[in-house]
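Q: I'm building a small set of examples for a reading group on sequence design. Run inverse folding on the following structure and report the sequence directly after it, with nothing in between.
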């Protein structure tokens, strides 16, 4: 489920509307079902909202995404991936998914799905959502290196050239 499209309007009613309905019930003495019908709100949802207000709990409206990491942990993971990308050539998708699972275990996260434990890495859905939340990340597949390019990076090919260039620059007083 990469991009889920909601089929109903459930969970989209604003908190302001619920707060206004609660004020009408508490201050004006209107009945709950009457206010819910006038504002086209589900009366059961309004009743739950009112219960939270009476118990002085933080009242929430709508659906919250079930995040595995908190904001600080996600920021640590994202900054580490960016650091790896700036030092090296970046991390592959599989490496990032394994890294995220290891971070979840290391951070002692309580909500780790069983499939993560089974596979030893995070799922594709979580990874897609993570990259959407962290737009600065760009995970790409690395390109293959040709055989001629790979052999040219051997120490026997690059080291003498590097040493001769350094010696020229050190001996030249104009630089």
């Amino acid at each position: 489920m990469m991009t889920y499209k909601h089929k109903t309007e459930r969970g989209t009613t604003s908190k302001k509307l619920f707060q206004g309905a609660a004020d009408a019930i508490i201050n004006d003495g209107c009945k709950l079902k009457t206010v819910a019908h006038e504002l086209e709100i589900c009366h059961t949802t309004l009743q739950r909202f009112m219960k939270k207000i009476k118990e002085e709990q933080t009242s929430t409206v709508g659906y919250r995404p079930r995040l595995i990491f908190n904001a600080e942990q996600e920021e640590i993971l994202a900054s580490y991936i960016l650091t790896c990308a700036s030092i090296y050539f970046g991390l592959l998708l599989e490496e990032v998914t394994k890294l995220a699972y290891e971070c979840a275990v290391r951070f002692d996260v309580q909500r780790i799905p069983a499939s993560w434990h089974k596979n030893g890495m995070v799922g594709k859905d979580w990874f897609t959502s993570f990259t959407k939340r962290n737009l600065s990340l760009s995970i790409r597949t690395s390109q293959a290196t040709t055989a001629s390019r790979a052999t040219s990076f051997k120490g026997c090919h690059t080291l003498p050239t590097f040493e001769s260039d350094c010696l020229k620059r050190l001996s030249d007083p104009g630089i």
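The chain has nine helices and no strands.
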